[in-house]
Amino acid sequence: MLPYATVNEAETAIGRSLTAAETLWFNYTANISDYILYCHNILFLFLIFTIVPLFYVFIELILRDYVAAYKIQPKVKFSLYHHFKCYSRVMRMFILVVGPLQLVSYPSIQMIGVRTSLPLPSLMEIISQLIVYFLIEDYTNYWIHRLFHSKWGYEKIHKVHHEYTAPIGFAAPYAHWIEVLILGIPSFLGPAIVPGHMITFWLWIALRQIEAIETHSGYDFPWTLTKYIPFYGGADYHDYHHYVGGQSQSNFASVFTYCDYIYGTDKGYRYQKRLLQQLRDGSRGDGGSYAAGPDIKLE
Ligand SMILES: [Zn+2]
Ligand SMILES: [Zn+2]
């Protein structure tokens, strides 16, 4: 909650007029506690987990023929029921783990110093902090994910996330509850090291989840803006990790490709890509997917 009773008081305190965005923030947060502002994340996550994957369900079920060329595992077909089943599993996890975690983790946000005050951060500050958060999360997530692929970690925890050998958007947050809790740590690490404004924190949580849904979508569209981000992994990159499953010692990184390159865990993927290119050059015409084989229909 802001420590100013009026806009004038706020303007005197920061020594200038409020921008339109700051006036909006002042009016919106005037009577809302910082705890409730933090808990907005529950609503944002619910909306993201529900709405963003629907885009991919729509193209999977309605535009299937038009987007077939971009489906990464074209032999695997999902029914509406299959998508809904995955969504209901995610929502159960959301109600039992993600939501309660948000409700009780507010003290950590207070401790690291995420602020709700004025002035609002500049666009440059928001973007630079988001880049730092993504880099820190990507690096720590890489190592935790690698540990999950140890025999014990995979069998006891991580194999739940790998139930989807051909991932779908709804399956992005689908994992064992212990994995959900542990992977919350890399997400908090960036804001803990470089604390920013609550708006930056909201954006960070939202963008990271949208990114995860895109990489689990099962579609690799050439026109996505993320193609312009240097070292960005994307859907094809993470899809391969699911395709090879428990045996996988490849493509551990959640966002970028540099960790797998540095630590040599992208060799299988690179080899497959080279092989497919050779097959295409030799006009075998298998659609360019590493997932050649019989059609699989999932009801
Ligand atoms: Zn994995
Ligand atoms: Zn995954």
Automatic annotation (TrEMBL):
Keywords from the UniProt entry: Membrane, Transmembrane, Transmembrane helix
The protein's name: Fatty acid hydroxylase domain-containing protein
Nucleotidyltransferase recorded as keyword: no
InterPro entries recorded: Fatty_acid_hydroxylase (IPR006694), Sterol_Desaturase_Related (IPR050307)
GO molecular function: iron ion binding; oxidoreductase activity
Origin organism lineage: Eukaryota, Viridiplantae, Streptophyta, Embryophyta, Tracheophyta
GO cellular component: membrane
PANTHER family per UniProt: STEROL DESATURASE
Domain Fatty acid hydroxylase: 131-265
Transmembrane segments: 35-63, 93-112
GO biological process: lipid biosynthetic process
Similarity annotation: Belongs to the sterol desaturase family.
Subcellular localization: Membrane
Domain of life, per lineage: Eukaryota
